[in-house]
Amino acid sequence: MASGIEELVNMLYEMVSDAWSLPFGAEKCLVEREKLLDLIDEIRVNLPKDLEQARAIVDNRNEILSQAKREAESIKAAAEERARHMVAEDEIVVTSRQKANEVMMAAEAKAKELRRAANDYAEDTLRRLETVIDQALNETRESRKQFKSAVVKTSAPKSEN
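Below the sequence we write its predicted structure tokens.
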């Protein structure tokens, strides 16, 4: 006869809607008992199959939803871990920059100190050199004076006694 529950229910509906109404009972009708019982028997036979399919579909849907939820949780956990890792990397970068700035400031201070020390050393060395040169110049002048004096004494005519 019919193959699916929906078709059987439609046939049952048509049978009731096409049935003759009883006189003085608008809500009551006459149906063929055998046809009605046959339809109900077919529904009983097909209903468990359709219910089983429906249950299988619902179970399958629930399994798919559970799997999707597990995957979503896994993706969320991975994203959170990645975010934590990125934040940690960012903190490392910030810390590294701070340390680099500290090292640069220390290096600049050390370079400034070395320049000052080098300038002081050069100034001291030049002052000592100037002193040595002044001494050498004074000694040279003194030697020239002595030389001139010696030359003048030896070149003067000797008096005859």
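Residues 5-112 form one domain.
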